[in-house]
Amino acid sequence: MSQNTTYTSVKRRDRLLKERSIDAYRSERKLPDPTLCQICGAVFTGGRWQWCEALPIEAKETRCPACQRIHDRVPAGYLTLSGAFFNEHRKEIMRLIHNHVERQRTQHPLQRIIDTHMKESGDMEITFTEFHLPKGVGEALKNAYQGELQIHFPEASGQVRASWSR
After folding, report:
1. Domain residue spans of the chain
2. Is residue 16's pLDDT more than 80?
């Protein structure tokens, strides 16, 4: 074995790539500050969408991601409600859901319900504009009424699917 081994440095050419978001409704570029949603009145300022008491005078106008999803009818999440208990207490459960969503919406303007409809099977499906909302509503239902909550995060679609039954 030779004791005169020399080492040379090799310059690495790999780099970290910026991960692309799977949400096509999130803008890749920063919006001008302030930007006003022409549909709901939410304002993009300080790097996020928020509610403002006084609307900015010289704001650019666009549609916020939630209003765009509602317009395109492309939900970010689904919650399916089923079971005999749900059918017996539908009004009470729907009141809890709407109260939970309204509390979230006051702090996070992009978190809204898109649609609520009955399936042929008798189950109810609720669609949402944000990924976090089906999980949050499902957990609120489970805390209030117990039942079984299942949450699926399929990576390919980028849509959250949750189901609650009792």
Report:
1. 35-63, 75-165
2. no
